């Protein structure tokens, strides 16, 4: 339960006039909030039960196109409705907007009222339920990295995305002075999110000019994904209100470091850390070793869910803190998987592969599926690696392009068994479509290279 307002508390705030608008939102394939703005009276009287949306919203791309090839929705099927079912445990104020509250909705079939299997929240819930059968809950944290730019989204779009000047003139990793200059955006981000019930730990400057990081306290997987999604949305809205742009594109410049969304993961049994064993030199339990072995063995299968666009793969380059290899290491930022908190209750694995553009529900679901498979099959964890993993030729590579990741996703028996064929096929189609759209594009690079000299 990630909300801070009960339905009764919402009703009293609507009655007092403190809240006049309720955002009923669901999460789309890209991890964005989509939905409707309700007059609060209507929401608390009737629409809290359910509302509706066109089913193309879970079969579209970033541009809201209607690609062919999806089994679930198409022109042929007439693009009917889905039910948006408000999850009343997620009601929260939206303090950065006046008189507004928000509720997250699950997406149900219009006729059967069953959850739509490829809806991101449903995909994650399915893995959480599986984990529960094994006696565990997953605690997760996603670190949000992004860039702040001097100008607004509208100004940048109107200049053809040419005028990209980061808000800072230099690498601001852990810088207090430079980040002081950014407090007009970052202070409201921290405080408004906190007031919305999102347990913000801190923000900091990151290792590039204009790059920021937001850390949110770890929580159960579904709450963590809800927090991530709302935080990303809030960062864009708060930046927009301040006349700035916040971008989660993983790689906006070939010579600048990219933005990640590292995912910290641990399993628990009740309030006991199932990953911790005091007798192990690193404090790692057998369960943790099997889980990590699954994460590593199946990394190519689920890379698409960590890197869902053509641009995502531009981030994976040597010497940028973005990994290129699917190995693990102890507190070493050059490997795909980093052991953190070793020897303590907080022992956990951080997956460093994901970019800032990942959908946290799908990413966490896919990693849980891989970890669960590791536990079920008692997979053995290979020894850790050390040194500069970029230069380790024996270590396996992360799929290097969206095309490669589509092949490994399509042929993943593990994900097909864990998520179901219809879910995997749905996202394979999304991935193919993204590649088809890119292949159709004539890029600036091609024109500059060949216009005169070809
Ligand atoms: P870093 O040095 O990478 O910034 P932090 O100590 O700030 O590491 O922690 C990073 C994230 O890990 C935080 O969001 C924190 O809440 C989360 N975290 C801490 N303990 C756990 C745990 N046991 N399981 C999952 N996430 C955790």
Given the C-alpha coordinates, what overall shape results? globular
The fraction of residues assigned to DSSP E strands is 15-25%
The total count of strands amounts to 17
Q: Work out the helicity level.
A: 25-40%
Q: Let me know the average pLDDT.
A: 96
Number of helices: 14
Radius of gyration computed on alpha carbons? 22 Å
Distance between the termini: 59 Å
The distinct ligands, each listed once, are: adenosine-5'-diphosphate
Walk me through this protein's architecture.
It is a single chain. The chain has 454 residues and is α+β, with helices and mostly antiparallel strands. It has helices at 7-16, 40-47, 120-133, 153-158, 176-180, 183-195, 221-241, 286-297, 299-306, 360-376, 402-410, 413-419, 421-440, 444-450, and strands at 21-27, 33-39, 51-54, 81-86, 92-93, 100-109, 137-142, 144-149, 200-205, 211-216, 219-220, 245-247, 263-269, 272-273, 328-330, 337-340, 348-351. The strands form three sheets. Strands 7, 11, 13, 14, 15, 16 and 17 form a seven-stranded mixed β-sheet that branches. Strands 1, 2, 3, 4, 5 and 6 form a six-stranded mixed β-sheet that branches. Strands 9-10-8-12 form a four-stranded antiparallel β-sheet. The longest helix is centred in the middle third of the chain and has 21 residues, at 221-241. The model has no long low-confidence stretch (mean pLDDT 96). Adenosine-5'-diphosphate binds at residues 139-141, 201, 215-218, 264-266, 346, 348.
